[in-house]
Amino acid sequence: MAALLPYPGISTLDQFSHRLDSETLKSLNYHPKDPSKLKQFYDEPDMYEPASVGKDYSDEAVLREFFFHDCQPDVAEWAISKSRSQQSMAYIFETNPLKALPSVERKYIVCNDDRIISPAWSHYAARKRLGVDAIELASGHCPHLSCPDLLASVLTSD
Prior knowledge:
By secondary structure, the protein is mostly helical. The protein has nine helices and two strands, in the order H-H-H-H-H-H-E-H-E-H-H. Helix 7 links the parallel strand 1 (109-111) and strand 2 (135-137). The longest helix has 12 residues, at 119-130. The chain starts with 11 loop residues before the first helix and ends with a helix.
């Protein structure tokens, strides 16, 4: 749900590094992998909503705009009061150690008003990586907070 989908043998940064300028890559101390392995990502939609890239997610206004924009004000306030900075960036930098994704039943929920993970990319990745059509949910990045009843109905339906 509103998630990055790992690609076996590649880091998340590898998947979108071609969209970043050289100064940003340098600031991240990024050293590109074999370019032939990364060309497959060039035609993918943007993984992240462009407006969300480089934002300071410790800023309450940014959290409200990108994570909690569709929440009731009291819920957004509560969520912001509980937010903590992500300590590890391993999900961006570390190479996915899998050789292939496991062969299990898969579903993916795309949040159509997500301001962080691109809904276009989510639809693309669900089909291309998981082999499923994404289930659409009319919400932002945090439907468990903005529309829990709707999310529960989607999760419990066949």
